[in-house]
Design brief:
Elements (H helix, E strand, L loop, with lengths): L16 H6 L14 E7 L5 E7 L1 H4 L4 E5 L22 E2 L5 E7 L2 H10 L1 E6 L18 E2 L3 E2 L1 E4 L2 H7 L2 E9 L11 E7 L2 E6 L4 H12 L6 E4 L15 H13 L3 E4 L2 H7 L6 E9 L5 E13 L12 H4 L4 E11 L12 H19 L3 H7 L17 H12 L12 E2 L2 E13 L6 E6 L5 E4 L9 H13 L6 E4 L16 H22 L9 E6 L1 H5 L7 E13 L5 E11 L6 H20 L5 E2 L4 E2 L15 E8 L18 H4 L1 H13 L10 H6 L5
Parallel strand pairs: 1-14, 12-13, 16-17, 21-22, 25-28
Antiparallel strand pairs: 1-5, 2-4, 2-6, 3-5, 7-8, 9-17, 10-15, 11-12, 11-14, 15-16, 18-19, 19-24, 20-21, 20-23, 24-25, 26-27
């Protein structure tokens, strides 16, 4: 075989790019399905209570309306691990915006108009939808998202804090936030006998198929998810959500395919959000900066029907060495929708608090913030005692400082000006776990020499399809244009979702294994392809189980240049720079895109994003993109992403750690730290609104 230049690491353009810009790429709502009708959800207008009656007569009187569905007229579902998926299975109302009925009609307009005509009567109860850190009902859960312990402690934290020469004790808050992907949640549900096909905006086709099969009491192979292209998810499409279940229920009830697309406004209560947090961080240190104690406590919320606790303090458990440590999650159950995964859950809010506190400690010590972090670099995982597979945080800090020009920084806050603008720079570290899961993949060669690889991955806009093609091509020793990788179908076999930055490492492992096996088969046959082609299947389950017990993380450092208007408090970010250590980079072009995208999301978190709870109604008051603000191009002048060449042989055969969420994690803290450096005002509550800058505590 001719030796080809390896494609892994090259900046390959997205294979599906032309299809997307020309409109040829089909998203969930666009698949051509015969005899399709439309469903529209009726949402609860109370935050707690019980549906007494649903009057659909006015809707049914409209000529195009086919049915009004409620808890008494839809098929019964089996037990759901996620109670939010028990759609229309009970008249009980757990939060405002919950689906309490639905209208099915022959046109989208008729379904929407019919839903508006449905009258729902409630037995309303008093509700509580406001998170308060002093609420006596708060408790420590046994485990939090990801299976981490709710609380961990080692040493004598209180004594160490009491005797520390230098200490910081501060409270930081982050608001509820919404994923708001560009493509709203949408589904087409088609039943053929007892086989269910769902064209679905989905981050995990195979995972969703197994969840929905159990919910409808079907064999796993009887549910098919099709998600060839997905317009973003950010965690909200990682598992099935109520609208998908409603579409399947409606299609089952009326015996016709059903389309359901959730409006932007409906998404704010139907498809999850990030919990607000109230975090208290206490740090004790010697005068040379070495930490003697870390205490990180986070209070957050969940619904009354489900316990979901984001793993907010888990990054603190691995970041810095200290002999005395306490990390605690605490939870309050309220009459609100259940929060769930969103953009690096846990690490994003948790590292904002920790890295802001580290900056405060650096000022208290009169120590450079980078040197403080370097001084507390652990030799092993501080919590587990396991060795790291690789840990290059110090390298990221040093390289970032050199590229950013950190040595020119005047450490005194509030002293640099450009006219009316106060200028500041900030730094923060980031980390993210290396999650991996087993997967299966098939690789096939046709007699003409073309290769087809299939895996139930999901490309949610990250370039996964392209990167997997690069992995396959290198393992097969074939040019990229002879390899086709198909993703997005649950029928391709067991594979994890695109979430937790585990996709590329997990899928690439299986794709690489399948392609190596196929290449070996071809070599054994002297490269002769049988008339019917040749196909192999790979499963990484046993390989996954055989891994060494190590602490596996990605690390990074983010730097920010900001300007703050001395009169108004307006914050402008002039420059963001990130340096990352994330294993082997598969595609330089899409990797850079993900990392700068992550940093822009972190900027959005720092300056804009907040859901405002109206406690009177138990609902978010700003439930559209006119009032829920996200960052735009005008919010930043320059954003740069670079990475260290990191070789980590203890991950998977392709050496990839995953990067989708790493760029988000430290960015908000870097910006907040830069705002403090510019103004001397420490803003501990996100987002950094101008009124908070103007009225915040001066700590210079």
């Amino acid at each position: 075989m001719t030796t080809l230049e390896r494609s892994v690491g090259a900046p390959v353009s997205r294979i599906e790019g032309r299809d997307k810009v020309t409109g040829a790429a089909l998203y969930a709502y666009e698949y051509p399905v015969r005899d399709v009708v439309y469903a529209w959800a009726v949402q609860s207008t109370v935050a707690r209570g019980r549906v007494r009656a649903v009057d659909g007569s006015a809707a049914l009187a409209q000529p195009d309306v086919l049915a009004v569905l409620d808890s008494g007229s839809v098929p019964r579902l089996h037990h759901a691990d996620d109670p939010e998926l028990a759609v229309l299975q009970s008249p009980e109302v757990a939060h405002r915006g919950q689906i309490v009925a639905a209208v099915v009609a022959t046109t989208l307009e008729a379904a929407r108009e019919g839903a508006a005509a449905v009258r729902v009567e409630y037995d309303e109860e008093e509700h509580d939808a406001l998170l308060r850190a002093d609420d006596p009902r708060i408790y420590v859960p046994d485990a939090v998202n990801g299976g981490y312990p709710g609380e961990l402690e080692s040493g004598d934290v209180e004594s160490a804090l009491a005797t520390a020469p230098v200490a910081v004790d501060a409270t930081y808050t982050t608001p509820p936030e919404h994923a708001s992907p560009m493509e709203p949640h949408a589904t087409i549900a088609v039943w053929e006998g007892d086989t269910l096909t769902l064209y679905n905006g989905d981050q995990g086709p195979w995972v969703s198929a197994t969840v929905l099969a159990a919910l409808f009491g079907l064999p796993a192979e009887s549910v098919h998810i099709v998600a060839d292209h997905v317009g973003g998810g950010f965690g909200s499409k990682g598992l099935p959500r109520p609208p998908t279940v409603l579409a399947a229920l409606a299609a089952r009830a009326i015996g016709r395919p059903v389309k359901l697309a959730v409006t932007r406004q409906q998404m704010f209560t139907m498809v999850s959000y990030r919990t607000p947090t109230v975090q208290r961080v206490r740090l004790g240190a010697e005068k040379d900066g070495r930490l003697t104690a870390i205490w990180h406590d986070a209070v957050q919320q969940s619904s009354r029907i489900a316990e979901f606790c984001e793993q907010t303090v888990t990054p603190t458990r691995v970041m810095y060495a200290a002999p005395n440590r306490r990390t605690t999650h605490r939870l309050l159950r309220l009459d609100v929708p259940t929060p769930s995964w969103m953009r690096a859950p846990g690490e994003t809010p948790g590292m904002f608090a920790l890295e802001s506190a580290m900056d405060e400690l650096a000022y208290a010590l009169a120590m450079d913030p980078i040197e403080l972090r370097v001084a507390n670099e652990p030799s092993v995982d501080p919590e587990s005692g396991l060795p790291f597979s690789s840990r290059n945080l110090v390298g990221c800090l040093r390289e970032g400082a050199a590229r950013f020009g950190w040595d020119r920084r005047d450490p005194a806050p509030g002293v640099r000006r450009d006219g009316r603008w106060l200028l500041g720079t900030g730094v923060a570290a980031s980390n993210y776990p290396v999650y991996l899961m087993p997967a299966t993949a098939t690789a096939r060669v046709e007699p003409g020499g073309r290769f087809l690889v299939r895996i139930a991955a999901a490309d949610i806009g990250t370039g996964a399809r392209t990167a997997l093609t690069q992995v396959a091509a290198d393992e097969l020793g074939a040019p990229l244009d002879r390899v086709t990788v198909e993703v997005g179908r649950s029928a391709y076999g067991a594979a994890p979702y695109a979430g937790g930055s585990l996709g590329m490492g997990s899928w690439g492992w299986a794709v690489g294994k399948a392609c190596r096996a196929l290449a070996a088969e071809l070599d054994d046959r002297s490269r002769a392809v049988p008339p019917g082609g040749l196909e192999v299947r790979a499963d990484t389950t046993e390989d996954f189980r055989a891994r060494k017990n190590l602490s596996r993380y990605s690390f990074g450092a983010q730097f920010a240049d900001v300007r703050v208007d001395a009169d108004t408090g307006q914050v402008r970010v002039d420059r963001l720079l990130g340096i990352f250590a994330a294993g082997r980079i598969i595609n330089a072009r899409t990797a850079r895109s993900q990392l700068i995208g992550g940093m822009c999301m972190g900027l959005s978190m720092a300056l804009h994003e907040t859901l405002e709870m109206d406690p009177r109604f138990g609902d978010f008051a700003n439930h559209d993109l006119a009032t829920y603000h996200v960052a735009t191009h005008a919010d930043i002048r320059t954003v740069e992403a670079h990475w260290l060449e990191e070789q980590d042989d203890e991950l998977n055969p392709i050496g990839a750690k995953g990067i989708g969420e790493l760029g988000i994690v430290g960015t908000a803290a870097a910006i907040a730290n830069a705002v403090h450096h510019a103004t001397g005002v420490r803003v501990r509550d996100l987002p950094i609104l101008l009124e908070r800058v103007r009225s915040g505590p001066a700590t210079a």
